[in-house]
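Attaching the record inline, Q. Sequence:
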Amino acid sequence: MTQADTVLLNGRIFCGMAEGFAEGLAIVEGKVLAVGSAAEIATLQGPGTKVVDLGGRVAIPGLNDAHMHLLPLGLAMGEVNLRPEEGVNSIDEILRRVAAAVKGKKPGEWVTGRGYDHNELAEGRHPTAEELDRVAPDNPVYMKRTCGHVGVVNSRAMQAAGIGHNTPSPDGGLIERRDNKLTGLLAESAMRLIVQAMPQPSAAELKAAIEKAGHYMLAQGFTSVMDAGVGMLAGMAEIEAYEEVARAGTLPVRTWVCIYGNADGIGDEAHAAGYRFGRETGLLRYGAMKVFGDGSAGGLTAAMSEPYLVGEPDNRGIFIYPDEQMHGYLAHYHKLGYQLAIHAIGDAAIEQVLSGIEKADSAEHPIRGRRHRIEHCGFLTDGQLARMAAAGIDPVPQPAFIYEFGDLYVTNLGQQRADASYPMRKWLDAGLNAAASSDAPVCATDPFKNLFTMVTRQTKRHSVIGGDERLSMEEAVHAYTALGAYTQFAEDRVGRLVPGQFADIAVLSHDIFSVLVEAVENDVRCDLTLLDGEVVFDRHGQFAAAAQ
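Structure, as predicted:
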């Protein structure tokens, strides 16, 4: 009889939606050997078997953040942190933090930050270039709103980017002016002018960012992610950095690469260099292509069929590309064999993208089986949902958006449209593989806030947004594990704890299937993470697998 390398005992093990719970699990050579009763697993123990004593805790398949930005998250960890939960609730606090960062810079060096939400600020508005100039007269400053689709810069940054009084807003973007004066606010494609003017991170910085963010994800129970836009910041250098850490064996998590394919992206260059669907290097796998369709609902730039209730009159958001250009990108990358992973949040953008994918269908290149994705897919109609189900096009949403931005959606769009957003229940009932994710660094990576919101549909202020869309905890974990694996063509490798799959496991501090849901929001942590059956994170440093 085969002897297990490691066994998990004395707790509940959630194996998957169809498989339910087990009392024990055995691992051999990095894969699940068996699951079953404690007595059954005990028969697989030998003198060299290590034992993970769950002590009443619960183990689940390793979590999968199906849409986040791993490398940018790592870089953001070195930027000025402006997130509301970190105490940034006024423009004065933003300016204080910028001023503190300037003290550590030489004149002319860039100061960057991310995470503020103008709706959470006491002033209820964005900071201005004039205000940033006061605390950073000699340094270019670039502060990104939490959504990443809007940012503010100071005068030195605009000068570096060549943005002047008469510079027009680019197609698919906005350079804001009020009273015929530049405010410093930029949206969507206009932000690329700043990115292109900034110094590029070095190869060493890129690799360090991947590794730092990857270990951060492991500490929360994630063993798989998709980096949803590789090449957006530093072009092909990002792929080269990923390849190097993957070859060196220092890539912490399984990573599904989504290549940035916008007009200023690296889609064709990456394809020509051989980075195509199906390529693998260690834990790194390639398959998806990203194109932006619109912006964000919080930033009033998601493309909607009906206007927003606040801001400029009749504002319906921003299309990044006209229909013909967008449909051309979709057909092009579809024919090249990539999975399409297209950013579309508003119903008008979803219509543009969905109709483009449908048009790309042909006898020679059918869309069925390609697992094309609409990223976010927040404010779709029932008719669009039905068409997605018919074509096998899956949404990849962020329930965390409801938690962090749900109250803002009510303000910007009204209760009815907010309630219908990110309809997890409708998606799952329709058979769609709605894989949960965070879009970090847009939202916090904290998986327990995400699980809490999937189960309760509550915001961080505990308002209920669309209560009919609640899931059970089992369904929520399913969306965060098996469905993510499916959208990455990895359902035969990870996502469930069944014999033959990689032993990617998260051991949680509480049994999330039985504790009060409030504890999931506030108290639950990941205690132990296993990747390929090996402990890669141990919160308490107490893993002692005693030989039996």
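The first helix runs from residue 38 to 42. The chain is about 30% helix and 20% strand.

More tomorrow.
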